[in-house]
């Protein structure tokens, strides 16, 4: 195989193999983190916060998974799955933290599979159907901008676990926001059709901003991102018109129940099963 | 690292503006590039050089002269392989949103994503031969190019996810590990990468089945049912028997393929039987038994008429699979066009700005 | 020498007409142009050609390359090149580009607990 030297230098040229699936480069985000809840932290509030952020991530990951085999190009399949997997990872860590702090000792699957729609605390923006690629990407831009701002603040949270999860999430969300922003600019600027679709997506997303900001007011950060992106995309800034109600209070659209029925169906059909 | 520009076909002239290309690569094109003698290399000399490369077990690289048949065979095989990865996302992809635990959801999501990646590596290899991905996609959705027949079977239960990992990815590994030594360099290199990544696919499938076999009676029944449904189609994945495989001989001679269909099928059976015993499932073949004389397993004959039917388009899910791929491609057209248009506008803007500065 | 692809004189240039949104009409439908991807596996190594992908522009090509060729925290630097142009990911982008895949432990075959006595797995 001496004629394969170029590839060998990639595949076998060094021993530690950190670039491959079976490599050693995996990091436990909680490695070395003390998981006891520090004095003075309100555990009820901490658990509720973890569940809400986990629900946002799980429901978003579920919607991103629905793009699988339906994305506009194969490279986009890979990208959307990367983002979905990041969010799913965040959800799992946050549910686990909630179970440790709310006194129930529940595991991640108890939260994901055995709560009813009214018990979910995700924002309604996350549960809306995917719509077209423009809607999905404008939504991703808004959600990742808000979550990035929030996680930036949470990375200095007094709970070391939430802080560690947030610090790791900041890197992921920076990339999600960049991916979404690049696409929204392309679609807004691209063709008359893509411009029309993206403009409509911005209008559809706007009413759902309000409930994001009740949990963490990142109005200025999100507005700054949107201003930059809409300007580059040649789109109008969305008008801020909050809808009544909030997913954070368990008030959801009609779209959450079918999403959860699909997510939870197999798990609930086999009580006592192990997977 | 120097980039070189290979012509799309051996007949095509070198693309202009390739002054950066290294002079060491040799002018293998039959274009106008004169050989040392001043005359173009005759086809026979090129053929002899090519044959010698194959005989020495060296790799053929994109810019090398190669016989048209070799190029055509490779494009067909690599494209079919790529299509199989992409269509193969569908049967399991159905279960990402339904996976019964978050851990399984993450594993399956990552696995199906890998398949998209593997399809891309393979399309990339096909494109080094002058094929065009848009054209290959057209051929797939118009039914003019095939993909592996196995993906035309349905996945009614979550146990199918495990059995696909165990059987289908196991069969794929039997097929693909030898392809890492395929005579065509880019294909062999893509296969190295794919095999490294796929080692996790088979293991996750087997581990899921082991977990389910330790679970409820209903789960064990689900696993056995999936094994019963997937065993024979998995054996068919290796293609028709050697005596009935028209393209195999040429592919073997060119070292595009390294082992015959029947030899690979035998390897798969020998590998899988002891794994089934450990798992506690029965493989649905009354003729399956150890043959001490051969040192291998004897096994029954798959229903080759079924394979013909499924390849011919009459499998349980053929229409559904192709239709999904078609609709994703067509519904995504406006997105791809928007990105192209934006890139063109950006380039014009950059040029206008340069002009303004100058 | 790397196995870079043939340059395509048509198609990519065909989109640079006076009306960028319409110029493909009548012509065969084309993908986004092809980019070659070079990854530096780690410090001390050269960038190595790892394959190709399609993207509408350099930015998208880098994003796709990160997603496709570094899903498993391989690589500290990527180059993409279309024709004569080379674009490189910068050091500053290293964290968001590469860090997120570090925890995907389920991509690791040894993550799956298979008894030693199961053969060939």
Automatic annotation (TrEMBL), chain A:
A Gene Ontology term for the protein's cellular component: cytosol
InterPro entries hit by this protein: Aromatic_CoA_ox/epox (IPR052703), Ferritin-like (IPR012347), Ferritin-like_SF (IPR009078), PaaA_PaaC (IPR007814), PaaC (IPR011882)
A Pfam family it matches: PaaA_PaaC
GO BP of this protein: phenylacetate catabolic process
Domain of life: Bacteria
PANTHER family on file: 1,2-PHENYLACETYL-COA EPOXIDASE, SUBUNIT C, PHENYLACETIC ACID DEGRADATION PROTEIN PAA
Protein's name according to its UniProt entry: Phenylacetate-CoA oxygenase subunit PaaC
Origin species: Streptomyces apricus
Gene (UniProt): paaC
């Amino acid at each position: 195989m001496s004629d394969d030297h170029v590839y060998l230098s990639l595949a076998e040229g060094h021993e530690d193999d950190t670039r491959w699936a079976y490599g050693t480069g995996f990091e436990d985000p909680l490695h070395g983190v003390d998981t006891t809840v520090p004095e003075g932290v309100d555990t009820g509030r901490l658990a509720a916060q973890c569940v809400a952020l986990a629900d946002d991530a799980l429901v978003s990951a579920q919607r991103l998974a629905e793009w699988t085999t339906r994305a506009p190009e194969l490279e986009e399949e890979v990208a959307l799955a990367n983002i979905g997997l990041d969010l799913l990872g965040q959800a799992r860590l946050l549910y686990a933290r909630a179970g440790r702090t709310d006194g129930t000792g529940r595991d991640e699957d108890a939260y994901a599979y055995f709560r009813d729609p009214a018990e979910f605390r995700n924002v309604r923006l996350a549960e809306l159907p995917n719509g077209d690629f423009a809607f999905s990407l404008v939504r991703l831009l808004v959600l990742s901008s808000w979550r990035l701002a929030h996680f930036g603040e949470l990375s200095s949270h007094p709970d070391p676990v939430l802080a560690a999860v947030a610090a790791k999430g900041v890197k992921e969300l920076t990339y999600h926001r960049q991916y979404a922003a690049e696409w929204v600019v392309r679609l807004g600027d691209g063709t008359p059709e893509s411009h029309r679709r993206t403009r409509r997506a911005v209008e559809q997303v706007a009413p759902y901003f309000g409930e994001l900001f009740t949990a963490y007011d990142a109005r200025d950060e999100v507005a700054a991102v949107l201003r930059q992106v809409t300007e580059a995309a040649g789109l109008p800034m969305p008008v801020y018109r909050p809808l009544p109600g909030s997913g954070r209070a368990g008030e959801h659209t009609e779209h959450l129940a079918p999403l959860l029925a699909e997510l939870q169906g197999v798990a609930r059909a086999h009580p006592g099963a192990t997977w | 690292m120097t980039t070189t520009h290979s012509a799309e076909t051996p007949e095509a002239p070198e693309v202009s503006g390739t002054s950066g290309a290294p002079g060491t690569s040799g002018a293998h094109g039959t274009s106008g590039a004169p050989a040392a003698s001043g005359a173009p290399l005759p086809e026979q000399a090129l053929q002899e050089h090519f044959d010698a490369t194959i005989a020495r077990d060296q790799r053929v690289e994109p810019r090398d002269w190669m016989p048209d048949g070799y190029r055509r065979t490779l494009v067909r095989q690599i494209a079919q392989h790529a299509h199989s990865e992409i269509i193969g996302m569908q049967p399991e992809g159905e279960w990402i949103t339904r996976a019964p635990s978050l851990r399984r959801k993450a594993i399956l999501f990552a696995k199906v994503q890998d398949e998209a990646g593997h399809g891309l590596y393979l399309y990339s290899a096909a494109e080094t031969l002058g094929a065009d991905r848009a054209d290959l996609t057209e051929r797939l959705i118009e039914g003019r190019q095939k993909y592996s027949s196995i993906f035309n079977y349905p996945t009614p239960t979550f146990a199918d996810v495990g059995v696909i990992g165990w059987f289908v990815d196991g069969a794929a590994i039997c097929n693909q590990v030898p392809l890492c030594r395929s005579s065509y360099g880019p294909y062999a290199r893509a296969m190295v990468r794919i095999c490294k990544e796929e080692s996790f696919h088979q293991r996750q499938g087997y581990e899921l089945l082991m977990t389910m076999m330790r679970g409820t009676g209903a789960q064990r029944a689900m696993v056995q049912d999936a094994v019963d449904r997937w065993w024979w189609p998995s054996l068919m994945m290796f293609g028709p028997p050697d005596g009935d495989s028209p393209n195999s001989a040429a592919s073997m001679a060119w070292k595009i393929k390294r082992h015959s269909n029947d030899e690979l099928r035998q390897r798969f059976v020998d590998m899988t039987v002891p794994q089934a015993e450990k798992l506690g499932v029965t493989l649905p073949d009354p003729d399956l038994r150890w043959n001490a004389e051969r040192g291998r397993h004897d096994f029954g004959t798959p229903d080759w008429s079924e394979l013909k039917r499924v390849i011919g388009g009459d499998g349980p899910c053929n229409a559904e699979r192709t239709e999904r791929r078609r609709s994703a491609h067509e519904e995504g057209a406006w997105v791809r066009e928007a990105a192209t248009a934006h890139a063109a506008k950006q380039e014009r803007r950059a040029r206008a700005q340069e002009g303004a500065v100058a | 020498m790397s196995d870079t692809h043939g340059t395509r004189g048509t198609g990519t240039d065909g989109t640079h007409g006076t009306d960028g949104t319409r110029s493909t009409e009548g012509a065969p439908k084309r993908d986004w142009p092809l980019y070659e991807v070079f990854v530096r596996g780690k410090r001390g190594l050269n960038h190595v050609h790892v394959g190709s992908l399609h993207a509408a522009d350099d930015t998208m090509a880098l994003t796709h390359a990160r997603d496709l060729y570094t899903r498993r925290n391989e690589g500290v630097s990527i180059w993409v090149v279309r024709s004569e142009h080379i674009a490189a990911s910068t050091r500053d982008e290293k964290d968001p580009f590469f860090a997120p895949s570090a925890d995907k432990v389920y991509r690791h075959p040894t993550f799956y607990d298979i008894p030693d006595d199961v053969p060939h797995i």
